[in-house]
Amino acid sequence: AQTVTQSQPEMSVQEAETVTLSCTYDTSESDYYLFWYKQPPSRQMILVIRQEAYKQQNATENRFSVNFQKAAKSFSLKISDSQLGDAAMYFCASYYNYGQNFVFGPGTRLSVLP
Amino acid sequence: EAQVTQNPRYLITVTGKKLTVTCSQNMNHEYMSWYRQDPGLGLRQIYYSMNVEVTDKGDVPEGYKVSRKEKRNFPLILESPSPNQTSLYFCASSPTGFGIETQYFGPGTRLLVL
After folding, report:
1. Chain A residue with minimal CA distance to B33?
2. pLDDT in tens, B42-66
3. Of the residues A108, B21, B37, B57, which has the fewest C-beta atoms closer than 10 A?
4. Could you report the per-residue pLDDT of B12-34, keeping only the tens digit for each?
């Protein structure tokens, strides 16, 4: 069974600064995907970034990037130049094609301080 | 506009009174899924469907039923709701269910069982 752990229930960052959210996962599969989702107060789930496990290169999307350490089963999210609109709950998730089920972590609530 | 819709958005009910939460997508997606979100637990998958008449259990299926008679609809049925099913529910869809694809989430349904 897959598990996803986010050890930081809450974090805060000053506007324009950089913050890193941690995520570790456990899977015995070789073909899997990892995701970060953002959930603002509206409760809408928004995909931030995704990573294919077979790709060694870390994914980036504008101010969002990941540090994917496959051997350590670590998948952290770095947010650069933090903005007030980045304040949200962030969920790390894993998925493997055989089984077709997503597993989410418990979430990290990020506050952005002006 | 491509979207996943859920109804109702809010629901208060009493223990034992059968209810159905509807989910519909207009993107001709094959894969659909239901999640529940609880504080400190993140999102947990209840059921998923790879196509019409093909459904399978996720991590927390007890107390829930689903059906997939049409490609666009994937209702969640609680035949005898209990207070521990009070939660925020999300429906989601993606083209074929492979991890590389973006998963589109509905706006959520907040359920309170008294």
Report:
1. A101
2. 999 999 999 999 999 998 999 999 9
3. B57
4. 999 999 999 999 999 999 999 99
The whole-number pLDDT of residue A98 equals 63
Name the closest residue on chain A to residue B38, using Cα atoms.
Answer: A106
Burial (Cβ within 10 Å: 0-12, 13-18, ≥19) of residue A85: exposed
Instruction: Say whether B99 and A9 touch across the interface (CB within 8 A).
Output: no
Contact A87, A79 (CB under 8 A): no
The length of chain A is: 114
Residue A69: pLDDT over 90: yes
CB contacts of A97 in chain B (<8 Å) are: 97-99
How many angstroms separate the CA atoms of A113 and A71, rounded? 34
From the list A33, A100, A106, the residue facing B40 with the nearest CB is A106
- Does B98 reach chain A within 8 Å, measured CB to CB? yes
Q: B83: how many CB neighbours lie within 10 A of its CB?
A: 10
